[in-house]
Amino acid sequence: xxxxxxxxxxxxxxxxxxxxxxxxxxxxxxxxxxxxxxxxxxxxxxxxxxxxxxxxxxxxxxxxxxxxxxxxxxxxxxxxxxxxxxxxxxxxxxxxxxxxxxxxxxxxxxxxxxxxxxxxxxxxxxxxxxxxxxx
Length: 135
Hints:
5 strands; three-stranded parallel beta sheet; alpha/beta; globular; two-stranded antiparallel ribbon
């Protein structure tokens, strides 16, 4: 399912070099959107500046989105992102962002937080680890 959301950004700094033009991000999580396999649907979305993976998508799919839109990819791991096909497709995208460490992406400070799983093959979340990343 693809939806749009507009947010008024409180700091105009990252937009200065863009003459006030908005930054357009494609945020994706949990399940691949089959509609994005078709170029006509991607064209309908219009140009974007980056793909942001919010967890539970294989690196290979995120790599496909980055290639299909011709933009960089940044992502965090979700509680399902362990072992199996996730590990097999890890070479198809950049490394996930380090959880709990601020990074700058195109002039915007991002605080990535993954939702770590306890062990490969399960979706059980490690609540303690997640909170330790936040504090």
